[in-house]
Amino acid sequence: MEEKKDNNLPLGGVIPKGGTAHDYSTGGWRKLRPVLDKGKCTNCLICWVMCPDSAIITEDGKMIGFDMEHCKGCGICAAECPDKVKAIKMEEEAG
Amino acid sequence: MAITMTKGQVGLTGNTAVAYAMKQINPDVCAAYPITPSTGIIEDFSGYVADGAVDTELITVESEHSAMSACIGAAAAGARVMTATSSQGLALMWEMLYIASGMRLPIILTDVNRALSAPINIHCDHSDSMGARDSGWIQLYSETVQEAYDNIFLAVRVAEHPRVLLPVMVCLDGFITSHAIENISLIDDAEVKQFVGEYKAAQHLLDTDNPITYGAMSLPENYIEFKHEQSKAMAGSKEAVLDVSREFGKKFGRDYGLFETYRLEDAETAIVILNSAAGTTKVAVDALRKQGMKVGLLRPRLFRPFPFNEIAAALKHVKVLGVLDRADSMSGFGGPLFNEVRSALYDLDARPKTVGRIYGLGGRDYKLKDAVAVFGELDRIRETGKIDTLTKYITL
Ligand code: SF4
Ligand code: SF4
């Protein structure tokens, strides 16, 4: 783990501004990775609603993939994708 | 108790005096769950709230854990916050005490010292605050009602000092000080206001232009750095205590340092003791001095941070020391004060012989004869150069 020797730490461990979660990579926690089958996806965006890490990327109201810097591989998207569709599969991370 | 006087001498109990100091400070928030023997503080203070004598938001909660949690939330929102508790109440706050100090929130807590269960006991000893000695709170101890009253103002200034920003615990003895009436001199409301000033938090949750997060996680990348900063602030708070005490002494004529010494300058034997029992010990010192014994006393006021160097310097000429603890740290090696003092003396080239005695647990009286007996024992060690028992209980 990278050790940061920061001598200007904010007082009392506060996070001194908003939106800093974006700078923190949770992708390294992943054991399983979500894989999308575009052909099956109906763009209902239930996965976008349910992902706890805001790691579903959309464009023009369509589901286009995953933000792998922040996807921690929980599999919630795959479980929540409607039963009739099941467009997301969780696969072992290589290595 | 209605208090109409703000000048001259007035008879108050320790609890009433602390509540009155809180009224004069007029904190933004007080969250508390009353417990014997500190109940009187919150009882009186809630009267001031009900009468509109203060603007304080009084949060009545369902436990001390919640009381400290509410204090932390309010302090993180930028409020000046005060509370009071005792014994099991402080014990139930445990988890939150560390969070208050880690978040560097200058909360003021009055702990009216009381024994911890089991067996259940409502009377004085210091096991409650001594148990919290590593929680990152600055601790000030008070011998008298006057000192408890004055310590509240000092505590506010020290806690909010820009180089400190740590919570402060003011300790006074349950019943002995909290319920006994003493003549004390009150400070004018206007002078209190001027001394404590207005509190403006450097960062707080209600500042929506500068949004911040309190209570975030810190993993191995930087947790130790946060603790290092906190530790430095704690060590450095000693200077703030001295500065604020000096200013207080100049303004109000009562000088408090890091500790008090009594007839210690040429003493051959001395007792180190906290809070009200120091009064009894001073009477013994006077009586034995009359008989020609060179005895003295040192009473620490600041226990956290512990002024190691200053206390060692003040005690270095003493031949035999008795350190009296009203708490047992159950280490098999005496009480917490004994261990701090003994450690402080270690770096001296010639150290006083030092024994530890545990006294007065659960409100057992510490009488003049007990202090005299300790001095007698110290004198025997001085004469023979031999310590029979390094640590033991007295007043059994
Ligand atoms: S696996 Fe979990 S974190 Fe990753 S995209 Fe799916 S729901 Fe989000
Ligand atoms: S839940 Fe399934 S179907 Fe709906 S957008 Fe996500 S992947 Fe496509």
- Please count the helical segments of chain A: 2
General shape of chain B: globular
Binned, the helix content of chain A reads 10-25%
Order of helices and strands of chain A: EHEEHE
Q: What is the C-alpha radius of gyration of chain B, as a whole number of Å? A: 21 Å
- Could you tell me the strand content of chain A as a percent range? 15-25%
Level-1 CATH class name of the largest domain in chain B: Alpha Beta
Distance between the termini of chain A: 18 Å
Topology of helices and strands:
The complex is a heterodimer of chains A (95) and B (396).
Chain A: E1 32-36, H1 46-50, E2 56-59, E3 62-66, H2 76-80, E4 88-92
Antiparallel strand pairs in A: 1-4, 2-3
Chain B: E1 9-12, H1 14-25, E2 29-32, H2 39-50, E3 57-60, H3 64-76, E4 81-85, H4 87-92, H5 94-102, E5 108-113, H6 127-131, E6 138-141, H7 145-159, E7 168-173, E8 182-185, H8 189-196, H9 223-252, E9 259-262, E10 269-272, H10 277-290, E11 295-300, E12 302-304, H11 308-315, E13 320-325, H12 336-345, E14 353-358, H13 368-384, E15 391-393
Parallel strand pairs in B: 2-3, 2-4, 4-5, 5-7, 6-7, 10-11, 10-13, 13-14, 14-15
Antiparallel strand pairs in B: 1-8, 6-12, 9-11
Helix pairs in contact in B: 1-2, 1-7, 3-5, 7-9, 10-13, 11-12
Bound molecules: iron/sulfur cluster (SF4) (2 copies).
